[in-house]
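User: I would dearly like some help making sense of a protein record. This is the protein in question:
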Amino acid sequence: QFAIFRQHIAYFIKRRFTDDCNWLDGNCFYFAAILTMRFPEGEIYYLPIEGHFVTKIKDVYYDWTGIVSLKEKPINFMQLRREDPLLYSYLIRDCIM
């Protein structure tokens, strides 16, 4: 059943986002936000070394390419807001605004 759910997410990405609108470079936060709106169990995570936002849905991470194999420890974006407000404010300024 979990594999079917992952296929559903992959199909949603492939069907709705055929064009690359800088989803991996510049608009990755917005793509992660879209996925969390469509899949409410999702949460936005930040990859600090890569400088990239991804969405975690049921212990699997996604971006525009589909399932992401992590090479670093992701940071929950809402947790970052509480634990490192300075970095959070920089990310808001530099990546979201």
The helical segments are 2-16, 28-38, 77-83, 85-96. The radius of gyration is 13 Å. Strands lie at 43-47, 52-57, 60-63, 66-67, 75-76. The CA atoms of residues 1 and 92 lie 36 Å apart.
